[in-house]
Amino acid sequence: MTEETKTPMPAAQPAPAPEQQESADLTVNDLNALKTIIDIASSRGAFKPNEMVAVGQTYQKLFSFLETVSKQTKQGA
């Protein structure tokens, strides 16, 4: 017979909260990069057929948003 020695696991302690959290800014350039990523991924067949509807709807929302921002930027300049 073999006996196993079990050491008690220490209770999980939450990580100390950082004093200053990094900013979670999302810029128009980030959104353009996401649009490009979706373009590349879909052209390489990264999405399954049943996922294409959700990807396409999200892409269309992103595209429309970026077009609106682009038009507003041109009008404001």
Question: What would you note in describing this structure?
Answer:
- This protein is mostly helical and 77 residues long.
- It has a domain at 28-76.
- Helices cover 53% and strands 0% of the residues.
- It is built from 2 helices and no strands.
- The chain has helices spanning 28-43, 52-76.
- Helix 1 (28-43) packs antiparallel against helix 2.
- The longest helix has 25 residues, at 52-76.
- The radius of gyration is 23 Å and the shape is flat.
- The relative contact order is 0.09.
Give the secondary structure arrangement, pairings included.
Blueprint: H1 28-43, H2 52-76
Helix pairs in contact: 1-2
List keywords for this structure.
single chain; 77 residues; mainly alpha; 2 helices; flat
Q: Oligomerization state of this entry?
A: single chain
- Total DSSP helices: 2
Structural class: mainly alpha
Order of helices and strands: HH
* Quantity of strands, as a count: 0
The averaged pLDDT comes out at 84
**Major β-sheet, in short?**
none
* Form type: flat
Gyration radius, to the nearest Å? 23 Å
Instruction: Tell me the helix content.
Output: 40-55%
Distance between the termini: 82 Å
Unreliable sequence segments: none
Strand content: under 5%
